[in-house]
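Hello forum,

I keep getting stuck at the same step: I have a sequence, I want structure tokens, and every attempt I make locally crashes halfway through. Rather than fight my setup again tonight, could one of you with a working pipeline run this one for me? It's a single chain of 295 residues.
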Amino acid sequence: MGRINIAKLSTLGIVLVTLIWGSAFVVIKDTLDILPPLYILALRFGIAGLVLLILGLKFLKKTSKSEVTLGAILGVFLFLAYALQTYGLKYTTISNNAFITSTYIVFIPIVNALLKRQKLKKQYILSIIICFVGILLLTVDTNLKLYKGDLLTLLCSVFFTVYFIMIDYTSKKYSAYNLSVYQFITCALLSLIFTTSIEGTNVIAISQFLLDKVVLYRVIYLAIMSTMLCYLILQVCQKYTDIKYVTILLALEAVFGMVFEVLFYNTAITVKLISGCILIFVSIIVSEYKFKPRN
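Reply #2:
Ran it on my machine without issues. Output:
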């Protein structure tokens, strides 16, 4: 009975994570009007990493060199994925950004099969076709024009694919807490370096925006709730939830993202938008569903 309750609580925990991540799309979209994308990432992951570092000094004393190295490598891919996603969000809608990002769930089993030199299952081929049609509906307008933000978001899903495949490997051998600290700090440092070199951001001058309580609350929400808390909850809940259900539940992030966009931006719901979102969601279910062979 206790095991069942833990499983149910874990499912609710993952749904809570997707709800918070879905709301984060709106928070980031609003903050992009004030702060540059990479500066937001530097603050978001910098604060999350420092808080975890302070809270986990006892655990970090036992950190191995492999954890530091792997954490840094994970941080590089995390940086690339979130940088592309945040830039993409600047040039596209929340719904497009959320659902196109979620396509990494479709790509993961396909890339895994290719890495293991296994024959692709028919359901994977079907899922990628459905996903591709869904992406076309979301990203291409009536003039067959592909938008910059959608393309950046699609690239971000590629890096998320690599990132989560690496997480699947490292989490079985190393401390998830230690890896989180080093990857968050790496992501924050890379964001800080590139925000000054590429965006030409005057970090000291732009920090004055943080004197605005609304901006400060948004940054804290992204760092503590959407990053630190969500990653910790997800790591705990994954232990008690079947992996195929975890991936399907994570797809709810895109659904919540679209819901929050409608609530806060009064976005028009078109047939094209709904059709594209449904197709991507269906492709995720198809890629993860375990089909039983006929007798």
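The chain has a mean pLDDT of 84. If your local run keeps crashing, start a new thread with the error log.
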